[in-house]
Amino acid sequence: MDQIQIAPEAVLAVLPNAISNFKIVFLKQIELKNFRNYTDINLSFEKGTILIIGNNGQGKTNLLESIYYLSSGKSHRSASQLDLINWDSDFFLVRAKVEDSNDKLIELQLGSDNNLKIRVDKVYQKRKTDFINIVPSVIFNPDDLNLVKGSPFYRRNYMDEILEKVIKGYSKHRNQYGKILNQRNSLLKSMSKDKKLLNSSTFDVWNEKLIKYGVSIIKYREKMLNSIRGKFFEIIDYFFKNSNAEIDYIPSWYRKVQKPIGNIENIKEEYESHLKNNIERDLKLRTTTIGPHRDDLFIRFGGKDVRTFGSQGQQRIATLCLKLCELFLLKEKLGKYPLFLLDDVLSELDLKRKKLLIKLLENKFQTFITTTNTSYIEGLDMDISKSYRVENGRVQEIKI
Ligand SMILES: Nc1ncnc2c1ncn2[C@@H]1O[C@H](COP(=O)(O)OP(=O)(O)O)[C@@H](O)[C@H]1O
Ligand SMILES: [Mg+2]
Question: What is the pTM of this model?
Fold first, then answer.
């Protein structure tokens, strides 16, 4: 595996809050060639709310996915970007005009060799970081209910993906932790066969590395959670009066008792002692049971875990609030209004809450809303700047 040379705290720099006025960034035009089921489209947009209407399987999500890819350099639903290339082609092209103080032209072309060619204002760039976050976005779709109802994996991923967007080096750091964890797990497998290895210095070295990287992951997640907590309560109360909500970080060693993390200053010592005390268990299970890869985030309403005891409505609102926290945090940290991509979610909210949501966005975030049926936006008194109908990879502007 790669040599680990970087000291965790040194690589990671938390972006300070943006002090200047927030920039309104928006997508003016997007051209897609051979992206999913779009062989060739060219669409123009304006600020405000854009509506995308179409039956199931026509390409609504694919369109939002292309915008999300433009923001983050990855798909929100496929692990491999190669999946985005049209099945009958060997490349895709995303070409976008973005308003960001002045106009920017971003061109991304991926070939079947997985080599991404990036151009910003016609100049070739080497790394994805050269275009990521020029036009940041947050995507929200019905599967996000897993954030509240699903396994802890989804909640860890939520925290990590936000951190990757706002902290330089976090993604690399997270990968390093994953590699060290894999090494330790392989070692555990060998040790369960040969107990002599338990006293080897190699094991100590891996434990030390694991703790070093693990501690800073926990610290960053905790810091991130602290900076969204206020907003989370504010938004939850806005949608659900007197919800009495709580949100806490639960370390792996407190998951059974559901106890929030203690004093973050002592985290290293706590982590070390729990890792040590669980070696027998780790050997038996042949895997590492202690560390940030097993942590969780707990949301309670009136003291009750929303995952198991929350009503469907509460779970949906909690999910929406997490997504909105991401939206507002990115705004604070990046100094611009991210795009908000709402994929098929309006059908899941009642009219009152849909209205509250629209009001909260204040028409400041360029918002893309997909829906199968215009009845879901009836009575919303929403200013729609453009509407498109999608049918089998073809898009047409419509008036509604
Ligand atoms: N790489 C690809 N090449 C061509 N078509 C694709 C590709 N990936 C998905 N599709 C097609 O895209 C369609 C789904 O589009 P999607 O945006 O998910 O629809 P919806 O309008 O329901 O959101 C399906 O018909 C699927 O077969
Ligand atoms: Mg869809």
Answer: 0.93
